[in-house]
Design brief:
Length: 80
């Protein structure tokens, strides 16, 4: 199964917006969405700091701060 991971923070409105947009996109595309709070993982917090939200496909960064729909769609096309 295709999986995207969003690195986020509980108090981040940009994170909430990105997660909501990706959940809406899931209705028309087949992928799993994992949300990880960087504050729950010291290694993620050290690596990414304040640079959230970030969308990852495995170790590949798709976008950060704002959802890049063309980049997400391009990633999804790679699995057709």
């Amino acid at each position: 199964m295709r999986r995207l991971t969003v690195l986020s923070r509980a108090y981040c409105h940009l994170c909430d917006e990105m997660i909501d947009a990706l959940r809406a996109l899931q209705s028309g595309a087949d992928f799993a969405l994992e949300v990880r709070d960087v504050d729950d993982d010291p290694m993620l917090e050290a690596r990414f700091g304040e640079r959230v939200p970030i969308v990852l496909a495995g170790d590949q960064e798709i976008c950060h701060y704002r959802l890049d729909l063309p980049a997400v769609h391009a990633w999804l096309r790679n699995f057709r």
